[in-house]
Structure formats: structure tokens, C-alpha cells
Amino acid sequence: MDKVSVVTGVAVPLERANVDTDQIIPAVFLKRVTKTGFDDALFYAWRQDPDFVLNRAEFAGARVLIAGPDFGTGSSREHAVWALRDYGFRAVLSPRFGDIFRGNAGKQGLLAGEISEEDVERIWAAIEAQPGIEASVDLVSKTVTIGEITAPFVIDDYTRWRLLEGLDDIGLTLRDEAQITRFELARETWRPRTIPVQQAVGD
Amino acid sequence: MNHVSPAVPRTLAEKVWDDHLVVKGEAGSPDLIYIDLHLVHEVTSPQAFDGLRLAGRPVRRPDLTIATEDHNTPTLDIDKPIADLTSRTQIQTLRNNCAEFGVRLHPLGDIEQGIVHVVGPQLGLTMPGITVVCGDSHTSTHGAFGAMAFGIGTSEVEHVLATQTLPLTPFKTMAITVEGELRPGVTAKDIILAVIAQIGTGGGQGYVLEFRGSAIRSLSMEGRMTVCNMSIEAGARAGMIAPDQVTYDYLEGRAHAPKGEDWDAAVAYWKTLGTDADAVFDAEVFLDANELEPFVTWGTNPGQGASLSGNVPDPSAIADPNERSSAERALEYMDLEAGTPLKEIRVDAVFMGSCTNSRIEDLRAFASVIKGQKKADGVRVMVVPGSARVRIEAEAEGIDQIVKDFGAEWRFAGCSMCLGMNPDQLAPGERCASTSNRNFEGRQGKGGRTHLVSPLVAAATAIRGTLSSPWDLGVTANSTSEGVNA
After folding, report:
1. Are B322 and A200 an interchain contact pair (Cβ–Cβ within 8 Å)?
2. Residue B132: φ, ψ to 5°
3. Which CATH class is domain A6-169?
4. How many residue pairs from chains A and B have C-beta atoms closer than 8 A?
5. What is the interface pTM, i.e. ipTM, of the complex?
6. Element (H, E) at B178
């Protein structure tokens, strides 16, 4: 995973609450077996509307999404993160995220920071006053700066550290492999096994 | 493994967590949690297996992993090649991956094939006190057994395949206490829709919900699964119900349930799992079951619901500006006028299925209402069992014939029109009463409009053609199913 520290780029106001992952990427696009190439699928239904914010020329090449509360609720589809990333977004700020979405974002190098509703409103107003203005999202200081506004955002320390260092989760976990093995040896025999018992026991 | 003194009172969720702690996180880093059961399907796994291949890693515990095909699979002509090429490729990719990595797979046509959240419990793999994950947000379903079960993204699927663990930050706990007696015709689905309407789609974020109280205790395992299934619709990753005799009776004798001494040891352990009397939850919510009525959603998120006897709400009466604009957008998308009685809303389709309501008792409930009736003219009614085994069981009871005599379609098992990844979709503008879990814009097909309902409401609606409860049929539903009081 690439290291993330400061994301700077055009900021887009998504002035909607409860943007579920079905809106971010509809299910028909989940049939692919690749991890890239989802940029056209992002907000597919809404982008059919020429007035949708991503269709406005001022927001071409956007990298920062400023969304209403409860962004990324619903389905666990990581494709929502892949689609945002493929489109070019590197940071999403919202007052609240769906838990699974926020976890997926952290694992794919998409910065998801929680920001107050008041600050979201102020930033939306600043962007509408000057469409195409750039925002700078600083993971080191945990602040976003746009025009005259500087606002703090919240991200958990562990995700922040992994993003700053560009660390891969599986590699980190496998450093504890001895403890995993020890746990497995103490695991009770009543716990489920998917392979029939006569094969699993094998003695 | 228990890092907490037994003297400290704990909740059900905390007990399961503590007993799966591989490494306690230090200084703000997450705990490493062991995963007992990993369920896999075709949509969220291909990129995870790809990641393993790239890194040269095996599946650590194929014996704790099981796969089935459900999201993409057709519900007609299942003996023919899948017509949609991308769907066919995705299914074939799962088959190749399972063969290569040694994962047990129940493919289309197999007797154990079906919706992943129906298959796990049916096989007896889902049991109290275990951790269950799947690349699907409705994994919360399995919490009905007192398991800690939650949906994960594809990166986490790869992580579990490689390590059988997940780094997780401890959840907060929320008690949702539902006391009282459900009236006839009011079901588990109405409970959970009412809970979500009360706390909102973000109300459970960061929490594990524990459903408790006399109304929850009175539910069958099927009803409990319906409740826990939709925990994610309140923003919670997991919902749990403490195991009791209902749980043990459901499990005993199933293919993968513990046997002999293992069974005795397991039950003895399971009986210790319930939340301690003095344990403290981070949040508490109460709901009066006596007052509940059949519930229905009017909007485009599962929190936008109301009693079926009510009206489409007026957005201008909603104080919160975000909720108000959401409601305005929802009514526009749903093509509804504020103030319209919900029972006057006419539907084009009824979908009976999904991981929320496709188990045998759900089908029995639906059949008990439609038996001997004819569906309303012009309404398309589709009944999709949750698994091949449920389908066979229903057919043995004659439910398929009741469905066909009613004028409805009897299909093969899968996720079907819950999310329309296969050909089962609404046309633009079509309105559907659906026993599924999400009424998001376009969820059941681009431009489709969804009203979430219970199987009993779906059945009554299919008869009358307008959103209806069994109460409107002038009969009392007589069914033992889904927490329906006979």
C-alpha cells in the first residue's frame, strides 16, 4: 500500500446524507473479478443526471469528497472504495461513516476522516462560492484546509499510522503467527469445522 | 484467553470477544481476534483469492471455511449455463479458487447451495459463542445464535483466508430490549423495522446490538435471524441474542452441530454466555412489543418506515435538516405524496425471499395467508427459497403448490431480487413489496421502488394489490412461524 500523508486536490461537495454503498456502486458492477476499472461505475445512477455534481466541469479531476452524514452505509462491498479510488478520490470527509466502509477505506489507502456537521456545511459553502477550489487534507496534523477554513477531522490512531507508513495488514498480523498457532491448539473440539469430522480428525 | 477478571460483569458480546482474543492490542492498536467460521461467496472473494496467489499464501484453515454460490445465480433454468457472461465468469472463478485452495464449495445444483446466511445455520455450522465473518454485511444474521458475526470487506476476506484472524477495535455495546407480547400478525420483521425507524440507519454505528426482552425470547430461531439480519441496517456491524433452549433445540442433530461429549461441553459453555445481571451497556433502547403493528418502509433507507396503518409522512414536519432533505428526495424517488395512507399504495410486484425472510418458517407464514386465494391482477409475485434444502422441504409440505395455485412464481434458491445481480430485477418505476432488507434507490433494479415488509404483509399485499396486513383480510393469520402468535 502506498503511503498517505497529505492529500491535495479539487474538493467536491456531495450534499446528501445516507449515501449507501448501493449508490456509490450499484450491484450490477460487482460481477467483475478484478480490483480496478470501476471508475465509470462510481455513483452510476446519479451520474446519468447531467446536473449531478461530478458532472460539473469545475470538479473535473477531483481528489477530495466532502459528504453528508452516514456515508458508505449498507452493503460491505469494497468495490465502493475501489470505485472512489479509481475515479481519483484519495480522501473522503463526512460526519459519520458506515463502519464497514470506513474499515475498507483504511485498508485500500483511501483516507476517511470524520468531520463535524458544522464544518461540512462551512466547507460546502466555501466550495459553492468558489467551485474548483482545492482542499488539503493533512493526515499528520489531522486537519483539512480549504480557502480560509481549517477544520480538524478524526481518524483512529491505528489506521492513521498504517496509512502514514503504508503498511499491509496481513504482513503485520503474521508477525503474531506463533500466538495464532498457540490459540488454535487450545481451541475446543466442539467448535465448527466445515470439512466432515472423519476427514478433519484424520487419526 | 480471558484477560478480564471473571468478577467483572460482562455482556454476551464481551464474553465472546474475550474468548477469541489472540493478541491484546497495546496502546491504541486493535485486538487480534480469532475467527471460527468464514463463509465465502462469489462476489466479494475473487480479489481476495487473487491477493493470496500474488503473495504466495495458502488458505490457513480450509476446515473453517465454506463457500456457496448465491448472489449471481439464476433462479430459473439452473441446469443450463448462466446466460450472463460476467456472472458466469464470476461463478467459475469461485469454483476455480475453491478447487485450487481446497475450500469446500456448494455450487448451484447442490443440495446445500443457497444464500450463505441460510446455509450456515442449516448445516449447524453457526452456533453460540463463535465468531463468524463473511464478505457480506448481512452476516449479522448469525448473531441470532449468540455468535459474534459481522460482514467484512474483500481486504478482510483475504486477511481471514491468510491468517484466520482479524485485527479489530473493540465495539461498544447497545441493549435493545423488546418487552411484551406481539399481536397476531405482527412478526420479527416488524420488530426490527420499528427498531431501525427508532434509532436510525446510523444509530448503531460502532455498536454490537444485543436484542433482549420477552418479545425476543418468544421468537423462533428464524424470527431471531430476521431481527439480527437487519442490525446492519441500523448501522451496527453485529446483532446478538443470548442462546437458550430454543437455540439448542434448533441446533441439536444438525450435520455439523457438536455430538456426544462435545455437545454436552458446548451446551455447558453456551449457558455461561448470557449477559451478566450487573453488566453495563454503553447504550440502551426500549421498544414496547404490545403496541407494535405491521410495519412498512415508505422511503429509500430502512429507517424510513412507519406502521402500515399510518400515512406517508410530511418531510416539512421533520426537524433535522439532513433527515428532511433525505425524506424529500425519498418521496420524489418513490413517487409518493405526503399524507397518502400507506394502505392505498398499489404495488406491481411482491418479492418473497432474501437472507432476511426465506427460511422454511417464512415460507410457511407466507403460504398460510395465500392458501386458497388468488393473487391480485397485474401483480407479479415471486417466491424464492433461501436454499435448495429449504426449497425441497417446502415442496414436501406442498408450499410450492400453494404458491403456484395462488398465481405466483416458485423459483430456485439464491439472493435473487433482493439486489438484482441476477436477472430477477424490477423495471424502472416498478413498485415492490419485498421481504428483503434494503429499500435503497435502484437496489432491486434501476429505478425500482421498494417497500420492506414481513412475509405476512407481503402475502396480504399480493392478495389485495395494495400494501396490506393480514388484519385487512378479515382473518387472523394462523401460523406458528416467524414469531407469529397463533
Report:
1. no
2. -130, 130
3. alpha beta
4. 213
5. 0.93
6. strand B172-179
